[in-house]
Amino acid sequence: MLTEHLGEEAALFSFPFCNFLSGLSVMMSTSCCGTKKQKMNSGMACNGYHENRSAVTKEMCVYCFDVLYASLHNDSPPTPNFPNDSYPLFVTWQIGRDRRLRGCIGTFDSMDLHTGLKDYALTSAFRDRRFQPITRDEMPRLHLNVSLLTNFEPARDYRDWELGKHGIRIEFVCAGRRRTSTYLPEVAPDQGWDHVRTIDSLLNKGGWRGAITEEVRQSIKLIRYQSCKLGMGYDEYIEIVSQRRPN
């Protein structure tokens, strides 16, 4: 399984549409949240308004914190307390009041959540090559987002997706090589981008180095998808864990 990291603005990965859910992990950018400083909502956001609004739960966020805490203290995490359904997913760590990206890695493989969240909570914390591994001292300032991805479908053209509803993954050819790049659904509206600016940003982050013309935009292949995201800060994590401890 290939694993790539979420960069400062976009995810870079490469695979054909027929295989995009069969064995490939993706690294995305800070800009799952973009480069502007944004006030992040810690509540649940189900982009695309699909009916399975209980897909992502607080228990999943608690488990990711448990996994990170256990790893930093050479301990074993508790058993996860949520259904072991299967989804493509991303785990994002942010730090500080301005929620600066601290690590973000995910997969377009459909993974059992017990394994997938454990693996990517640690991978995004320790193996995002743009950052030093997260340390014990940083934990009290961390914020976590868990995103579960759904409803993948090919678009008719580069404009065939809805801002704020769809995440997008584009594929294009540059210097004879197939390249791809992705943004989660919240990126474009957080940045104030329209369709053209979003596509142009993804092309640049995916490695396009020439002029971006309408012909270039029309040549890309685009997959749109939806996501359900839930955020949690360290203070909320500690509050939940303390309530579960026996008196």
Automatic annotation (TrEMBL):
InterPro entries on file: AMMECR1, AMMECR1_dom_sf, AMMECR1_domain, AMMECR1_N
Residue ranges the record marks as coiled coil: none
All copies of domain AMMECR1, residue ranges: 50-241
Alphabetized PROSITE patterns for the sequence: AMMECR1 (PS51112)
PANTHER family assigned to the protein according to its UniProt record, in alphabetical order: AMME SYNDROME CANDIDATE GENE 1 PROTEIN, AMMECR1 HOMOLOG
Full protein name: AMMECR1 domain-containing protein
